[in-house]
Amino acid sequence: MKFRNFKTVPKMIFGRGSFDQLDDVLADERTELDDFVVFLVDEVHKDKPLGQRIPATGKDMVIWLDVTDEPKTTYVDALTVEVQEYAAKQVNGKNPVSVVGIGGGSALDLGKAVALMLTNEGGSASYQGWDLIKNPAVHHVGIPTISGTGAEASRTTVLTGPDKKLGMNSDYTVYDQIIMDPDLIQGVPKDQWFYTGMDCYIHNIEALNGTYINEFARAFGEKSLDLCNEVFLQDHPDSDEKLMMASYMGGQSIAYSQVGACHALSYGLSYVMGYHHGIGNCIAFDVLDDFYPEGVKVFREMMAKHNITLPKGITKDLSEEDMEKMIRTASGLAPLWENVYGPSWQEKVTPELLRNLYSKM
Ligand code: NAD
Ligand code: ZN
């Protein structure tokens, strides 16, 4: 048996107001006069107070990200070219000394992806997979402004490419530094707060109930789940702090275990129907009583408490071709199903099972 050699984020700052320390963090990277930093910031912050607090100076570059769609390889490549063209004009083509991703899972993944593509040639689609990245990335800093995905902690950047939705998974993908400032997640719209928060809750349920579970992953997963319960069932006064830590710890938990049935189904919903990760997970989780009875029961209590209603009947007008594509996408995620059923998962995960689950959504 070979165990995973787990790369984690080496430096992190946690606390309200800690965003102000970004300037100090970057000062350590700036050594020459024409050194510059690229800030990739979710456009939602452009005319908000956070947009005014970006510590850009000198030749730094601020790019406002369009996250209407979840990150695509084409977008990553376009952003990379934009940085390279700017660098060619301004600083003789040298790379930035740091790339800072600020926003939700989408912006955090774009930050990682651009940092990787600045040092690895050939376009991001050619690196979708495991350990295909050859060169270390540019120094990169992640700052979440909505919590749940665990993207701040993970070794992947999830991208939709020409023929698949798959991350660039590598040790180089992991952020060099994260700043977790609970102030930044205030003001997230309620529905989105819930969907992205449930991503974290579902990571824990799937990890804790999976065959890959071990004490390392359980330690993080159980604590993260307790925090989710405090946030979503008890409206704890420190909910922002708790959700931010839950997200990070949920990410740590699945990094040493795996997600499960809900994420497999949700990938299909996303790839074929364009559902975003958080809401797609909620829609899928709501039909998984047989897989995660207790988890789904509590999830419904959380939905009721926060007046969340999910779209229903979403697959009823779907073409047979799309349904089959969705089933293929979901059944292709071998490690996720192995985590659910163990090594003999292929006997269990039949097209009929998946069709039946999709039909209930
Ligand atoms: P998101 O980043 O798409 O953001 C959701 C919405 O919230 C957007 O409209 C965004 O503009 C808005 N938003 C963000 N911060 C805000 C704030 N402070 N105030 C108001 N609005 C704000 O959503 P997400 O759920 O965080 O991330 C989903 C993405 O993360 C997907 O692309 C998914 O594939 C990816 N993901 C990555 C990993 C990983 O490990 N890399 C894990 C899970 C999901
Ligand atoms: Zn997830």
Automatic annotation (TrEMBL):
SUPFAM superfamilies named among the record's database cross-references: Dehydroquinate synthase-like (SSF56796)
Pfam families: ADH_Fe_C, Fe-ADH
Record-annotated Alcohol dehydrogenase iron-type/glycerol dehydrogenase GldA domain positions: 11-182
Keywords, alphabetical: Oxidoreductase
Highest taxon of source: Bacteria
Protein name: 3-deoxy-alpha-D-manno-octulosonate 8-oxidase
Keyword Oxidoreductase: yes
Gene3D superfamilies noted in UniProt: 3.40.50.1970, Dehydroquinate synthase-like - alpha domain (1.20.1090.10)
Keyword Oxidoreductase in record: yes
Recorded name of the encoding gene: kdnB
Fe-containing alcohol dehydrogenase-like C-terminal domain mapped to chain residues: 195-290
